[in-house]
Amino acid sequence: MQRLARWLGPRDGLLIVVSVTIGVVVGYVDSQPSWDDTGITVALLLLTSAMAAGLSGRRPWLWALLIGIWPPLFEIGGPAGLGSLTALLVASIGAVAGYAAVRVAEPAADELP
User: Fold this and answer.
1) DSSP string for 35-104
2) Backbone torsions φ then ψ of 24, nearest 5 degrees
3) How far apart are CA 27 and CA 21, in angstroms?
4) Is residue 61 a contact partner of residue 92, using CB atoms and an 8 Å limit?
């Protein structure tokens, strides 16, 4: 257990719970027949994965997976089929962007007096 705590970091426990909750909600809502707004789904996946990876500052692949896996899990057997796997791609792009933004901003913060 101690090894896992070191691997994740001090803030990551709460961030995991929030990320999975948001991913499940987005996946569930997106799988409903009455939901037909891909733009909102994409924006939520991008923004939440970027914020999670940015807040953590580590392992963008983990945040992309925790947030982006849920739409395919809810939809893979439905009419969307394998097309729902694009949610993982969208979440990955957001997570890498959030992680990169934090990494680029860190050296600038070190230069402040």
Assistant:
1) ---HHHHHHHHHHHHHHHHHHH-S-HHHHHHHHHSHHHHHHTTSTTGGGGGHHHHHHHHHHHHHHHHHHH
2) -65, -45
3) 10
4) yes
**Residue 22 clears pLDDT 70, i.e. is over it:** yes
Q: What is the pLDDT of residues 34-82, one digit of tens each?
A: 888 889 999 999 999 999 999 988 889 999 999 999 999 998 877 777 7
* Global confidence as pTM: 0.81
Q: Do 63 and 106 touch, CB atoms closer than 8 A?
A: no
**Burial annotation 15-44 (CB, 10 A radius, 16+ → b, else e):** bbebbeebbbebbebbbeeeeeeeeebbeb
The reported pLDDT for the residue numbered 112 is 53
16: pLDDT strictly greater than 80: yes
pLDDT band at 108 (very low <50, low <70, confident <90, very high): low
- Please tell me the distance from the alpha carbon of residue 53 to that of residue 64, in angstroms, as a whole number: 8
Compute the C-alpha angle 20/21/24, nearest 5°. 80
